[in-house]
Amino acid sequence: MTDPAQWVSTPIPSMPEPDWPALSRLPITGSSERLIPMSLAPPPVRVFPAYARLGVPDAVNECYLREDVYRRLLAVARSLPQGLTLLVLDGWRPWRVQQYLFETLSDSIRDASPGIDEPTLRERTREFVSLPSRSPDAPSPHLTGGAVDVTLCDADGLPLDMGTLFDEAVPASHAAALETQDAAQPQALSQDLSQVRPRDNRRLLYHAMLAQGFTNLPSEWWHFDYGDQLWAHYHGHAQALYGPAELDTIENRWRRQL
Q1: What region does 233 belong to: left with phi over 0, alpha with psi -120 to 50, or beta?
Q2: Region for residue 172 given its phi and psi (left: phi exceeds 0; alpha: psi -120 to 50; beta: otherwise)
């Protein structure tokens, strides 16, 4: 399905949440693909490293992704209707940032729900932030460089209304949540983009990303994967491509060269 009009008229399916234990057992072949900064991308792709701009400790002021993921995102941007493009919010994420996000959300849920038991707290936290893991056999998705957080923006760089904010930890952030809340017919793409319903904006993003081989995390309309264990799980592949990745440093380069 490659027609944007068809994307908008096609509902986002309701998908089950990941089976994390099964997912973590999927073997990883490993890949030498480098991490590419999305700031190299030509217009109209836009980059806004959300966690660095929000002051999250140890967040990097760039969005790095594996080279194949980078190229697929460019293909997504080029497939969108005129006047729209991708806004990349996060890609490769240091383990320390993953730990900070998990602990911060967990503490917020505990404060809002006194007396919550630990298994329920862990499950609710994991709905929006995966467990921090540097394990070569089961890394956090964003540590692989294969997970990306994106949204749509207009020609002026302003994000479209997607119904909830990026990283808003509420049920309405589930990718298919608006399918039941707004059952009206989709609007034509030729209408004023600022008036298009959030449900249809989500549909457009979802199907444009899937057309380039990505999978979506059902609890987050903004989160997509390629090559990691989440991608393998939802695509039904027997193995994943990407394990943990690290940014290159001048020290690492010198050590390799010497």
Answers
A1: alpha
A2: alpha
> What is d(CA 241, CA 232) in angstroms, rounded to the nearest whole number?
8
Residue type, 88: V
This prediction has a pTM of 0.92
First to last CA, the chain: 50
Q: What is the CA radius of gyration of the chain?
A: 18
Q: Which two tokens stand for residue 252?
A: 């690492």
Question: Residue 146 corresponds to which tokens in the numbers above?
Answer: 């294969």
Count CB atoms within 10 A of the CB of residue 211.
Answer: 17
Q: How many residues does the chain have?
A: 258
Nearest CA-CA partner of 175 in 254, 96, 234, 250: 234
Count of CA atoms in the C-beta half-sphere (13 A) of 35 = 25
Record the tokens describing residue 127, joined without a space.
Answer: 């709905």
Would you state the pLDDT for residue 214? 98
Amino acid in the structure at residue 124: R
Tens of pLDDT, residues 2-44: 788 899 999 999 999 999 999 999 999 989 899 999 999 999 9
For the stretch 230-247, what's the b/e string if a residue is b when 16 or more beta carbons lie within 10 angstroms of its beta carbon?
Answer: bbbbbeeeeebbbbbbee
The answer for residues whose C-beta is within 8 angstroms of residue 197's C-beta and 6 or more apart is 178, 182, 184, 186, 187
Over residues 120-172, the pLDDT tens digits come to 999 999 999 999 999 999 999 999 999 999 999 999 999 999 999 999 999 99
Picking from 81, 78, 121, the residue whose alpha carbon sits closest to that of residue 103 is: 121
Q: Which amino acid is at 190?
A: S
Backbone angles phi, psi at 77, to 5 degrees: -60, -40
pLDDT at position 255 is 76
